[in-house]
Amino acid sequence: MEKAKGFKGNLFFLFIATFIFIFILSLKTPRTYRSTPQPRWAPTPATCPLVSNTTITPLQNTQHFLVSAYMDQRVDGLDVRIIGIFRRDSIQPLQCFFNCGSRCNNSAFLTSPTTVLQHSDNFGFPFVTTDAMCSIPKDCHPTHVTLLTQPHTLRGSDLSWLPIRNQKTNGKETRFKFNFTVCVSNLFGDYNNVLQVAQALEMYRLLGVDRVVIYNTSSGPELSRLLHSYSQEGFLEIVSWPIDKHLNPSRGWLFSQFGGDLHYFGQLTTLNECIYRSMERSRYVLLNDIDEIIMPYQHNDLMSMMNTLQRQQPNTGVFLIENHIFPKKHFEPSGRFHLPQWNGVPGVNILEHVYREDPDRNIYHPHKMIVQPRMVEQTSVHEVLKHFGERYKVPLEVCRIIHVRVALRGPLPLEQLHEDKRLWDFHEKLIPNVDGALQRAGLLRSERES
Ligand SMILES: *[C@@H]1O[C@H](CO)[C@@H](O)[C@H](O)[C@H]1NC(C)=O
Ligand SMILES: *[C@@H]1O[C@H](CO)[C@@H](O)[C@H](O)[C@H]1NC(C)=O
Ligand SMILES: *[C@@H]1O[C@H](CO)[C@@H](O)[C@H](O)[C@H]1NC(C)=O
Ligand SMILES: *[C@@H]1O[C@H](CO)[C@@H](O)[C@H](O)[C@H]1NC(C)=O
């Protein structure tokens, strides 16, 4: 009896092992994968390619959304990463559907299986940021991709294609268009903190930032005016992010506390989107909010700081910067930078707030990050989720975040805060630059009166 049982057990084990082996083999060979039968679909000029013209594209026959597609061959055997927002409880098998070839009239349409990777940070919300990963079928040079459910009856009209971005031009050495890009995840509500935003953007510029990317769900009227002006000039890239048209986005970070469909208006998705958007064009990416300034304290700009840090930490792609709160209720008493021309401009004047809280080190203290985007696969807000290379906490004396906002540790008396006038070191250039920006947007008082 005993023996027979053991024998059966072995057979069972052998069966499972074979199955696992075949399964692994099937995973290992995606590069030459060519599904049979290929979907037959006769494209018509009217429907092909129907390229999505929005940043949030509902995926037909599912509850999911597609955001953007990027070439990404850093992970063995995979070629394309489609960033999306998926409903966690209804993730079904999917296929990547490639438009191979540059013209609809000579394109082949090929599929390959999709691996859906959910990001580990979902904070309990029903929707999560996902990467749908695919390999490109043999002999396909795709320009566009979308996802199919199975079974799917193909009708051209219900497909929305995403262009595949970050396609390297062969043979050309990568030359970065930008040294530093700031990714500001989301604007929502009627955020209208014009003065602080203008000051932050001009401060970024003085520190060597070449491009700021902002995802806009909604913003106040004056702020919109300011941002449009920056966007015309090319410093700012505004990505429309109408998440509230599709989902009930949460204003908080934790589902159990705030409810809603998705963490903070989709902040985690936009941060990842921005990393991939910047991957081929920016040496570094700063992931911080619009009211935060990543400030070097020993260098005059970000480039000289990063050159030093990178020499000391050559294999590091993720630099963690500690956040420091400058409560907006405490004013610098001399009023030196309480400037009359800013009186009519809505928002906080960060030059007036020079008292810094010590973080409460007994609780989790969040960082923001400077990353080399090519060394990041998935990110969260305060940490990267998947990365190559090392991460490094930058010492406080080298760099901190200046974050003017409501006090985090409200009861702390002024005597327990630290005077920190680092921003003042830049006032000679900062003030005229801010004035110029406000003027170009038609938001300076003198000009509105005249
Ligand atoms: C996108 O395309 C749809 C349908 O063609 C059109 O109605 C809509 O206005 C377009 N949206 C944008 C932002 O161009
Ligand atoms: C077919 O391709 C040719 C060359 O690639 C192009 O000139 C032509 O406009 C295309 N026709 C249609 C209907 O897309
Ligand atoms: C990036 O920084 C280097 C100096 O380290 C400079 O020579 C180069 O012009 C900068 N590139 C851009 C796009 O600003
Ligand atoms: C942000 O989006 C809202 C809603 O679509 C729009 O009214 C506003 O003009 C946008 N602002 C910018 C700067 O694009």
Automatic annotation (TrEMBL):
Q: Does the keyword Plastid apply?
A: no
Cell compartments where the protein resides: Membrane
Record gene name = LOC103365875
Q: What is this protein called?
A: Glycosyltransferase family 92 protein
Cross-referenced InterPro entries, in alphabetical order? Answer: Glyco_transf_92
Q: Which UniProt keywords apply?
A: Glycosyltransferase, Membrane, Transferase, Transmembrane, Transmembrane helix
Task: State one molecular function term (GO).
Answer: glycosyltransferase activity
Main location, first listed in the record: membrane
Q: Where are its TM segments located?
A: 7-27
Is the keyword Flavoprotein in the record? no
Enzyme Commission code: 2.4.1.-
Q: Name one Pfam family in it.
A: Glyco_transf_92
Give the bilayer topology: Single-pass membrane protein
Which organism encodes this protein? Answer: Stegastes partitus (bicolor damselfish)
The Swiss-Prot or TrEMBL record describes its family as follows: Belongs to the glycosyltransferase 92 family.
A cellular component term, taken from the record's GO annotations: membrane
EC top class, as a word: transferase
